[in-house]
Design brief:
Low-confidence stretches: none
Number of helices: 5
Oligomer: single chain
Shape: globular
Number of strands: 0
Radius of gyration: 16 Å
Helix content: over 70%
Order of helices and strands: HHHHH
Length: about 140
């Protein structure tokens, strides 16, 4: 069980770093504020009153990513998902998270407009790539749950 938790945290951190870097590059090169959206905490009642440095906001993102990865690994183990179930369901879950979180952009002046097609596309593409990377780590050869 300890190994599963460690793998989940490691996988979540690595995949979360990838997502962050991907969205940061998109924002730097296109100007579409999807990285800002990723780090945005304006929709949390208590946190919106504070201005955190980028590094702290990124740590919040990584914590959420690690919790998600551990949770998925526990579900994979409990329900004994096969390789294709791991890939399809992880992609579906991470895409759904992206869809559910995108509307929070309306709650901040720092993030893209809710109707920005390029922001939606980049945001959802990032979450699909994140899910693909997570599932690749989950099904890496030699893993047993």
């Amino acid at each position: 069980m300890r190994r599963l938790w460690a793998k989940g945290v490691f996988t979540g951190l690595l995949s979360g770093i990838f997502l962050g870097l991907f969205l940061k590059m998109i924002e730097l090169f296109s100007g579409v504020k999807v990285y800002t959206l990723l780090l945005n905490v304006d929709y949390f009642p208590i946190l919106k009153n504070y201005h955190f440095p980028e590094l702290i906001e990124f740590v919040f993102h990584l914590i959420i990513s690690a919790v998600l990865a551990v949770s998925l690994l526990l579900i994979i183990r409990k329900y004994r998902w096969n390789r294709s179930q791991i890939i399809v369901r992880t992609l579906l879950i991470t895409f759904s998270i992206g869809v559910l979180l995108y509307p929070t952009t309306a709650l901040s002046d720092r993030t893209p407009e809710l109707t920005s097609v390029s922001a939606i596309v980049f945001w959802l593409l990032g979450h699909l790539l994140y899910g693909l990377l997570l599932s690749a780590f989950f099904i890496k050869k030699g893993n047993t749950y």
